[in-house]
Amino acid sequence: MRIDIDKDVCIGAGQCALTAPDVFTQDDDGYGTVLPGREDGAGSPLVREAARACPVSAVTVTEPTA
Predict the structure, then answer these.
(1) Most CB contacts within 10 A, which of 24, 45, 53, 54?
(2) Separation CA 15–CA 11 (nearest Å)
(3) What is the SS3 assignment for 38?
(4) CA-based nearest residue to 2, from 53, 54, 52, 47
(5) Which domain does 43 fall in, by range?
(6) How many helices (H) and strands (E) does the chain have?
(7) Which residues, if any, are the signal sequence (predicted)?
């Protein structure tokens, strides 16, 4: 899986970091970011829930294509 955060859409609500703190954090400006080395979701079962929790849908989770 691949995780992306649209920095132009993110409002810094922090729901991603609250829902899946092993994958997401907030940067120095308060915007959501994926922790280094966790761009593939690292098997966290909460990644999709974190994407759903984003109030502005800035977090997207996609499956790799064959």
Answers:
(1) 24
(2) 10
(3) coil
(4) 47
(5) 2-62
(6) 2, 4
(7) none
Instruction: Return the pLDDT at 13.
Output: 97
21 contacts: CB under 8 Å, gap ≥ 6: none
Coil, helix or strand at residue 18: helix
What per-residue confidence (pLDDT) applies to 39? 81
Q: Which residue has the tokens 């909460």?
A: 46
Q: Would you state the structure tokens that stand for residue 46, as one six-digit string?
A: 């909460």
12-60: pLDDT as tens digits: 999 999 999 999 999 999 999 999 988 887 677 899 999 999 999 999 9
Residues in the chain: 66
CB atoms within 10 A of CB 4: 13
**Which amino acid is it at 38?**
R
